[in-house]
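Reading is simple: each integer encodes one residue's backbone shape. An example follows:

___
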Amino acid sequence: MDLTILLFFIAGFIAQMIDGCIGMAYGVSSTSLLLSFGVPPAAASASVHTAEVFTTLVSGISHFKLKNVDKKLFMSLVIPGVIGGILGAYILTNIDTTIIKPIIYVYLVIMGIRIIYKAFGKPFEKAAKKLEDIKLYILGVLGGFLDAIGGGGWGPVVTTTLVADGNTPRYVIGSVNTSEFFVTIAQTLTFATFIGIGEYWKIILGLALGGVIAAPFAAFLVKKISPKVMMILVGVVVAALNIRNIILMLMG
């Protein structure tokens, strides 16, 4: 196997194991790696989202079979997510969006800390607090938009917010990951239309293969982790990752 493909295979496998277990970080971690190799932001996001078409398909099927999907939550997120994803992908290919990143980083640090606080607060109840439909629609649009802009963010924004609001992590993760498949298709088609994706086929192939192989294992593992432990993992990953992003941004 080509060493470039192998490198991104490993990255895709690790990223999908994290994403499938805590509902986020595939796009963020994969995009960070591509940017470190000098891939332009729009191209990095396009490559990651093209690979995610395959990984999210397998992940979604796995979560559905393992009954991790809340159908109402899924339906409330998918269409708004598609709309936000198309808008974000279009803007990323046409406008400089560097000013948006610091806002995203700060928001996610706050959300990560909030989740950790809730995990150590009241005993976690399986009966999740229901969100108003309008809030879910706005969340879906925002998540899809930020995901396309930053090369990742659907999980960190949508999963983080839903878990922080007291929803059961298992069903949030399963529903968010499954709806992400449709959001990713919309984003990929938009990127393909405006910048093309053929040039980055080695990156896409490596990320996709690693992610597809990891997805079923991650979907199974999410059933074995307690909600409290999962909330702590989500909070720590989100807060730590984005504190690091802020430090690197300030140093740069």
About this structure: Residues 169-194 form the longest helix (26 residues). Residues 123-129 have pLDDT under 50 and may be disordered.
